[in-house]
Amino acid sequence: MNDAGDDAAEAAGLTTGSLARRLGVSPTTLRSWDRRYGIAPAERARGRHRRWAPQDVAMVEEMCRLTASGVPPAEAARVARLRFTGAGAAPPAPAEPPAPTSDLAGPADLVAPVRPGGPGGGLPLGDVRQECRGLSRAAVRLDAPELERRLREAVLRHGLTVAWEEVMVPTLRAVGRRWESSGDRYVEVEHLLSWHVSTALRSAPLLLPRPEPLTGAPPVVLACTPGEQHSLPVEALTAALAERGVPTRTLGAAVPAEALLACVQRTGPAAVVLWAQARSTASAPLARHVAGLEWGVAGARGRPLVLPVGPGWDRRTYGDFPRCAGLRDTVETIGRRYEDNGWGRQARAR
Questions:
Q1: What distance in Å separates the CA atoms of residue 250 and residue 224, rounded to the nearest whole number?
Q2: pLDDT tens digit sequence for 146-196
Q3: Are β-strands 248-252 and 220-224 bridged in parallel, bridged antiparallel, or unpaired?
Q4: CB–CB of 105/26 below 8 Å?
């Protein structure tokens, strides 16, 4: 259908199925909201499919935003109806109880059994912080403003490390598992969530109190190994180090070996973090090569502390390098490196 046809169809009203796809909820959820809370099209024609006019759509979008923020569905419906129709009173109770449904289900084939702690937008979240559930619902709905708001709130409330380990990572993993098990569908959900997580990580130093940088201290170089495209953990570590005033030089995804070596030689870093998500990208020879680099005048040469980080490294590829279990442990290890060399106490984890 061309754009003019799309506009005409939307002006005539959306079907329940079309509205469900737009919002990232199931048609069953919309019908449940109609029966339970009176969230329904203002006009209905007998013998015809219900059509949702623009004002009806705005009312349902408001309902979604409120429930995603933790407002109970009944109260969210009352506020949405009051705002868009002026009808704030609760609708009559149905003659028969409706069949049990999830008020916040995702698309039909994303729906998972409801787990303790409330629904999570159809994603297999398990026992996680409540923020993960709101974040997952916003991701399934492709609600970019809500994703941005929730991620910013998580960083401000918990700090970067906790926000990453206990809010962002569990939600990213749940989205990844659902994508892998659904025949490569809903990749747009993962991409949108990853984009906004990256944005939140990069803006974190502007949101959080930032200590004075360590005067005269060498930086930490952070890079993904050659061929490694997963760079979000490197961005998270960059932000966590910035919280403590540690200078960084972050090179990002799939850094060629020659470029990494040149950066190390030019900057003389205190430490080099090599992230590998997969075993195929974890290179022990590269790590050893970086660890063997030297700079400075004779008698006072410097070498970097090399930290292979990520699930791609195993016992064989780790060798004698320090092992760091997660973001917090990596930050602690780098902080001790700065303290041991007298580069300032600000790097100490608080």
A1: 9
A2: 999 999 999 999 888 999 999 999 998 888 776 655 665 668 888 899 999
A3: parallel
A4: yes
